[in-house]
Design goal:
Blueprint (H helix, E strand, L loop, with lengths): L2 E6 L23 H10 L6 E7 L5 H9 L3 E5 L4 H11 L4 E6 L7 H14 L3 E3 L13 E4 H10 L3 H5 L3 H4 L7 E3 L18 H14 L8 H9 L20 H14 L3 H8 L3
Parallel strand pairs: 1-2, 1-4, 2-3, 5-7
Antiparallel strand pairs: 4-6, 5-6
Length: 277
């Protein structure tokens, strides 16, 4: 049985362009993507680490980073991320795929291994640690059997399913056995954002790496939580960032828009939008 992590990465992010190329720590020559790769490679249970990027010319730099870090890479569709995962896994003969995203420079190898072990113990088709009792955003791990990934690749036709790799699986619990790896109490801080999606997220990550990296290059997620929770102010840095999510109806989108308008003080526009509910 071959277990491999596939890290999806591209430079054409919309909210913070080229975010994965930003340095962490701030004054270093190490990119956020390199931190993701290095921390993922610390896993004891992974046989392979593959960076799955796009065929876009600007993403050639990602393949160079992968080679520099001694891991394999694959180039495929920018928008059909599901196919990128499928062919990455097929080309490397993976039996189990661990999905990691490149906007998680704090990813914890211990959590990766524990999620894999839970997946195997439960004999699940798919396992996530971000379902009912999630870890902080940015520590997310998904584990997928190749046969299940192949099923998704062949049967998921909706554009949303092609862009969001595991949504088809999660939307069909009657077909797939889904494992729900819950965060232990010390990790259960769903209000904490350790992801890299906006400039405010980057500011918090710089604070974390500047304080922890030089003493221990492989600091743990518990080290992070101990650092940022002992004082109240670090959590204020990216407190108001709203994670992109899937909306099943226009009403859900309007409700989310109302929240955003309220945060930014657009009261008249907020009331105008609410009138459509």
């Amino acid at each position: 049985m071959k277990i491999g992590a596939v890290i999806q990465a591209r430079t054409s992010s919309t909210r913070l362009p080229k975010k994965i190329l930003k340095p962490l720590p701030y004054d270093s020559d190490i990119t956020a993507l390199q931190q993701v790769i290095r921390r993922t490679k610390k896993s004891d249970l992974l046989d392979e680490v593959i960076v799955a990027t796009t065929t876009d010319k600007e993403d050639e730099i990602i393949t160079k980073i992968a080679e520099k870090e001694g891991v394999r890479w694959f180039r495929g569709s920018r928008d059909d991320v599901l196919s990128r995962y499928y062919y990455s896994a097929k080309e490397n003969n993976l039996d189990i795929i661990v999905r990691i995203t490149s906007d998680c420079p704090c990813i914890d190898w211990n959590i990766i291994d524990n999620t894999i072990l839970y997946h195997l113990e439960m004999k699940a088709d798919y396992t996530s640690n971000s379902i009912t009792k999630p870890f902080p955003l940015g520590l997310g791990v998904e584990v997928i059997n190749f046969s299940v990934l192949e099923n998704s690749y062949k049967n998921a036709e909706d554009i949303y399913y092609r862009e969001h790799v595991t949504t088809y699986i999660k939307d069909n619990p009657e077909i797939f056995k889904i494992g729900d790896y819950k965060a232990p109490e010390e990790y259960f801080h769903p209000d904490v954002r350790l992801t890299l999606d906006t400039v405010h997220d980057y500011a918090l990550l710089c604070y974390i790496f500047d304080n922890l990296y030089y003493e221990n290059k492989f600091f743990s997620s518990l080290d992070i939580l101990n650092l940022i929770l002992k004082k109240e102010w670090p959590l204020l840095i990216n407190k108001h960032e709203i994670q992109k999510k899937r909306f099943l109806s226009l009403q859900e989108e309007i409700l989310e828009a109302v929240k955003l308008l309220e945060i930014h003080g657009f009261k008249r526009l907020k009331n105008f939008v609410k009138s459509y509910l």
